[in-house]
Design brief:
Length: 133
């Protein structure tokens, strides 16, 4: 299965038959290279990926400055140290799951809930971890 298929069929899918979809999604290597992304995923800057990787290595490092993705600032909220980073901005947000080789991103907007985004992103991320990716 191609990386783009993972984005299209597993991240940008209908969430639990609700008709809701993530606003954007991507799989990006730890080095910042884009493996696959939805058409709506923002153009990320290398320093934004570096900041995210640093927060996985040193949890809490993004909290004082916020999480930036495509120039949009998200407030960092609870996650799982070294595994998941979550950010929120008004009625939208982002979930980022770290795997052995990549970062799985999901961006949601109302009416999709943070919990739905977490479920979609973390389910694919956990599968990729199990596959050694």
């Amino acid at each position: 299965m191609s990386w783009q298929t993972y984005v299209d069929e597993h991240l940008m899918c209908d969430i639990d038959g609700s008709g809701g979809h993530l606003a954007a999604a991507a799989i990006i290597g730890h080095d910042g290279s884009v493996w696959a992304q939805s058409a709506s995923f923002p153009q990320v800057k290398p320093d934004e990926i570096t900041g995210i990787i640093n927060d996985f290595n040193e949890p809490g490092s993004l909290a004082p400055t916020g999480l930036f993705l495509g120039g949009t600032k998200y407030m960092v909220i609870q996650g799982e140290a070294g595994a998941v980073i979550r950010g929120k901005k008004e009625k939208c947000g982002v979930t980022i799951k770290k795997t052995g080789q990549a970062l799985v991103f999901g961006i949601y907007e109302d009416p999709v809930t943070p919990g739905q985004c977490n479920m979609v992103v973390e389910r694919l991320g956990d599968y990729l971890v199990e596959q050694g990716l």
